[in-house]
Amino acid sequence: MSFKRRFMQLDVFSRQPMKGNPLAVVIDGDGLDEATMRAFARWTNLSETAFLLPPTNPEADYRVRIFTPRQELPFAGHPSVGSAYAAIEAGLVDAGKTKLIQQCAAGLLPVSIEGHGVERIIHVQAPVAQALDVSVNVRNAIAEALTATLNDEHIKLINIGPHWWVCDLLDASRVRTLEPDFAGIQRLCEQHAVIGVSVFGLENTGSAQMAVRAFCPADNIPEDPVTGSANAAIMAFLLDGRDTRYGHRYVASQGREIGRDGYVTVKHDDATGTITIGGQCATVIRGELDLA
């Protein structure tokens, strides 16, 4: 006997379909075992697939489990933004609420909502970040894989749920013209249990202040279109280095190099020390899933 589940596929960090980062969302994930979730995430072959579940903590409005084609993640930015959007659209939470609590493997994360419908912007608080130094050997290997020059102050390992190597390339033109060695990045990620390498640089034109790219070839995602956790990790990098070039709220542009055009609003709250990432979503597919 089959059990049909509601399913959505979204474009996250864009109000325009096919310009953001695709996310598969299984609305009624309750009853699916982990093996099935992993298998379905491999089948969708998107950077992440999210499963919405009833919360097990009474403070939470909903629970989400997030899978790449290779592994489960404690937190990821675009699945968190997209999951909140899907939970509202599917009626799992009250559409009139402006504050939600998401339960995920990284804990309870506050979510705030601005606007309604296609204008809705969802901001998700990232887990507390930890900035770690990178050894000279690893730094040199990453620089070689990126075909870039990196000094000590230009690279950090940021633990924000997933671990990211974050690299400051200073200027957007260097970010956008980068031609990385994906095989080299994959080897490094697998050797050090790091999800990927993110790079950023100052953008002087358009509506964004920063250009970002993120490379995750070990998860079968050579270049991720628009990456919430990487953008949160970049803010943590800036705070760790007391870098004030971008301020405590800015917009990052990501995805143009692979035919997308996503925008992430990144904020740091001085009072609480928290980092949030936010953006719009567009529904591309809405239907039913039958895994029987």
Structural class: alpha+beta
- Cα Rg: 18 Å
Question: How much of the polypeptide forms β-strand, as a percent range?
Answer: 35-45%
Count of DSSP E strands? 18
Number of helices: 6
Distance from N terminus to C terminus (CA atoms, Å) equals 7 Å
- Report the mean per-residue pLDDT as an integer: 95
> Would you list the SSEs in sequence order as H and E?
EEHEEEHEEEEHEEHHEEEHEEEE
Shape: globular
The percent range for helix content is 10-25%
Main beta sheet, described?
Answer: 18 strands, mixed
Low-confidence stretches: none
What's the short story on this structure?
The protein has 292 residues and is of the alpha+beta class. The chain is built from six helices and 18 strands.
Which properties best describe this structure?
single chain, 292 residues, alpha+beta, globular
Describe the structure in your own words.
It contains six helices and 18 strands. With 292 residues, it is of the alpha+beta class. The protein has an 18-stranded mixed β-sheet that branches. A hairpin with a 7-residue loop joins strand 15 (249-254) and strand 16. Helix 2 (77-89) crosses helix 6 (228-240) and helix 3 (136-146) runs antiparallel to helix 5. The chain is globular. The N and C termini lie close together (7 Å).
